Amino acid sequence: MGTTRKTLKRGLAAAAALPLLIGALASCGYGSQAAKPGDKAADVASTDGKKLSATEVRVGYFPNLTHATALVGIQEGLIAKELGATTIKPQTFNAGPSEIEALNGGSLDIGFIGPSPSINGYVKSKGTNLRIISGSASGGVKLVVNPDKIKTLDDLKGKKIATPQKGNTQDVAFLNWIATKGWNVDPESGKGDVSVVRTDNKVTPDAFKTGSIDGAWVPEPTASKLVADGGKVLLDETDLWPDKKFVITNIIVSQKFLNEHEDVVEAFLRGTVKTNEWINANQDKAKTSANAKLAADGGKPLDAKVIDPAWPSILVTDDPLAGTLKTESDWAVKAKLIEQPDLTGIYDLRPLNKVLKAAGKPEVSDAGLGAK
Question: What is the pLDDT of residues 327-343, one digit of tens each?
Fold first, then answer.
């Protein structure tokens, strides 16, 4: 499939998230934050001076390890180098809804984001505003439990397990897993054979420490934070997928920006492709770089006991893993969280495949969900 991939030392929302109820997403935005002036990666233009059709490109991402391509690509100047004289203006977001709002509202051009808000943004605009133009990351989602209360997967019945948001990627995956066990949970309330407690990733560690939840199905680095607090990984979601790969982060673009500045989009994707190459070839340096960017964005780096186990579970990839996005969408439909969406046209991989071909790499597939 032409994936630029490698387990970052095999062994991150938010990162992410799957199709949210449109109403739920619209009401759950948590705001954003521009990169601080003086940061190494704030408002960067390359000294190469290449002239493109836009003077700047506004880029959104989450300060999460599952957005490693953004963290490292911006921190190391690898994306800025390809953009030449076009300034990259980074902006951080804490959840998908606010980033989608910024893209739909015209204050953001390109975003790193999970599959759920990608689908929601596409459906909400009736397919007129957003396109997925590349993959970015796979994996990095784990079920972590209190080992004193839960020793086997069967022990989850009757317990309180957290997910980041109702209808987000991890929530839908957990509801689907519960269904495979033959257990019943109301997707709206989260009540049933397992109590699904929708809890923001920022407060999940405290909820775990106080015992108000018995475990959580969450992305990195939240999962490793729980392990550092005495939790145990009972299941890695990667192991549930046939090829051990599933989309956790996409790159999306405003259709208006793509139509008017395709050269800038191509240059940006050259930067992300080269960033993923650099990450794969320099794993320790990339981990350090990502942590430095997290510190610059949030004021505090991750402790080694958190980032060291979290990093290996995430794969960077140019491949959007389009087939897995369709599967995740089908799970949300099955859970009765959304009606069946028409995802035809959600991908436009022409710029990425042009970049990959020029670099001598195999092209990637849109799984039949590309623009006609």
Answer: 999 998 999 888 888 99
Measured distance CA(30)–CA(229) in Å, rounded:
26
**Whether the bond into 309 is cis, omega within 30 of 0:** no
More confident residue, 8 or 139: 139
Q: Which of 23-27, 116-120, 328-332 has the lowest mean pLDDT?
A: 23-27
Two tokens, residue 312: 């290996």
* Concatenated DSSP letters of 270-282: HHHHHHHHHHHH-
pLDDT at 85 over 80: yes
* Residue 48 in this model has a pLDDT that exceeds 70: no
Report the predicted TM-score, pTM, of the whole model to 2 decimal places. Answer: 0.83
Mean pLDDT over all residues of the chain? Answer: 87
Instruction: Find, among 166, 127, 366, 129, the residue nearest to 250 by Cα.
Output: 366
One DSSP character per residue, 119-183 reads: HHHHHHTTTSSEEEEEEEEEE-EEEEE-TTT-SSGGGGTT-EEEESSTTSHHHHHHHHHHHHTT-
Task: Give all strands (DSSP E) within 20-75, no chain letters.
Answer: 32-34, 56-61
Distance CA 43, CA 36 (A): 9
Q: Is 279 exposed, middle or buried (0-12, 13-18, 19+ CB in 10 A)?
A: buried
Which residues, including other chains, have CB under 8 Å from residue 174's CB and lie 6 or more apart?
143, 161, 163, 196, 217
pLDDT classification of 300: cutoffs 50, 70, 90: confident
Both tokens assigned to 333: 């439909």
Q: Report strand pairing: 32-34 vs 87-93.
A: antiparallel
| Beta-strand runs (E) in the chain | 32-34, 56-61, 87-93, 110-113, 130-139, 141-145, 160-163, 195-198, 215-219, 232-236, 247-254, 314-316
Q: What is the strand order of the sheet 32-34 is part of? A: 32-34, 87-93, 56-61, 110-113, 247-254, 130-139, 314-316
